[in-house]
Amino acid sequence: MANIADDTSLGAMSLPGTHDTLAIHGGAVAQTQEVFGDNGKTLKAQLEHGIRAVDIRVRISGAMDFTVHHGVVYQKANFGDVLNETRAFLKKHPSETVLMRLKAECPFEDVKPVDCANDPKSMKAKDARSIFGHYVSRNSDLFYTPSAAGEGRAPVPRLKDVRGKLVLGSFDSDAYGIETFNKNQEDHWTADPVEKKWNYVKENVDRAARDDDNEMYVTYTSASQGLTRLPFEYAGGYWQEQGGVRTEVQGVNYRLMKYLNGGDSGRVGTVMMDFPGWALIDDIIFRNNGHIPQGGNRAIWLVNSDKTYVNSQYQRCMVRGPEFDSAKSGGLVT
């Protein structure tokens, strides 16, 4: 972001992000990102590889801290790890900003779903907000204060106001976040088939390119259908066989990459992805070219294939191997 003009609205930018950013445990049904290590190491790798928007799902631990989960599966990272890695990255790269969607994985209300049983039963939404407030007070140097003060959603900031800061896009309450972050959102996470999900994604990025730069647009390319269709298949594609004919179904990430390759103008907003590859990340960043002042040099912040994901997950996207058979029997779901 070093070459982006200071007065650029955060809403006018195109930001590559990850859906369920730290979901690396729980097998093929739960995993949404390539594994780079526990305790926030996967987040560190994502930030270094061009990701600037993250999606963190938390529960309350017995110690009254936030732990990172995907459903019932603990992702071997805590919210403190997220903040520590983000601070380290922004200290090293003060021209950057990181946008975060924070979500309580449980509703913290009197009636809880079965999969929330590992949260303290006494917890309410106000308790989650109180715990978050303690994190903010201990990390006041890191957060963009207007987004995390709990005093209502802040206007969409300019880049100059959030360089070196963690910007809270939303956190389960109108008291936090940035205006319009949740307004123009595409998140049909159970859309089936893949073609239907892709149409939702394309419609939202097209709207972002056409509409008012002062509003935020957030598009999730991610989806799943339980054991029927897994996150990595929606992302990277798969083979299907019908009537003895075997055909390739292209994943949403691949379709979006090819679509963005066809043009070089117009923002796409914030795009949250499962298993993003380097070329798609680069395509999204490329849409910021119009915000570089005359004489600026994009090559300084180009995302390079040797510095970003060589996505091992895509190597098995097209075939359901033995690991899927284990997943069907519950062997990979912990």
CATH superfamily caption: Phosphatidylinositol (PI) phosphodiesterase
Largest sheet: 5 strands, mixed
Output the helix-strand order.
EHEEEHEHHHEEHEHEEHEHH
User: Which regions are unreliable across 5 or more consecutive residues at pLDDT < 50?
Assistant: 299-334
- Total number of helical segments? 10
Strand composition percent: 15-25%
**Secondary-structure content class:** alpha/beta
Q: Compute the average pLDDT.
A: 84
**What would CATH call the architecture?**
Alpha-Beta Barrel
Overall form: globular
CATH topology: TIM Barrel
Q: What helical percentage do the residues reach?
A: 25-40%
Q: Give the N-to-C terminal Cα separation.
A: 39 Å
Tell me the Rg in angstroms: 19 Å
Question: How are the strands of the biggest sheet laid out side by side?
Answer: 4-3-2-5-6
Tally the beta strands: 11
> What's the domain count?
1
What is the CATH class name?
Answer: Alpha Beta
Label this structure with key terms:
four-stranded parallel β-sheet, 10 helices, alpha/beta, disordered C terminus, 334 residues, 11 strands, five-stranded mixed β-sheet, TIM Barrel
What's this entry about, in short?
The chain has 334 residues and is α/β, with parallel strands linked by helices. It has ten helices and eleven strands.
How would you describe what is shown here?
The chain has a single domain, classed as Phosphatidylinositol (PI) phosphodiesterase (TIM Barrel), CATH 3.20.20.190. It contains ten helices and eleven strands. The chain has helices at residues 41-48, 79-92, 125-138, 145-148, 159-162, 194-210, 231-236, 252-261, 278-286, 322-328, and strands at 15-18, 53-60, 66-70, 73-78, 98-104, 166-170, 184-186, 217-220, 237-242, 245-250, 270-273. The longest helix has 17 residues, at 194-210.
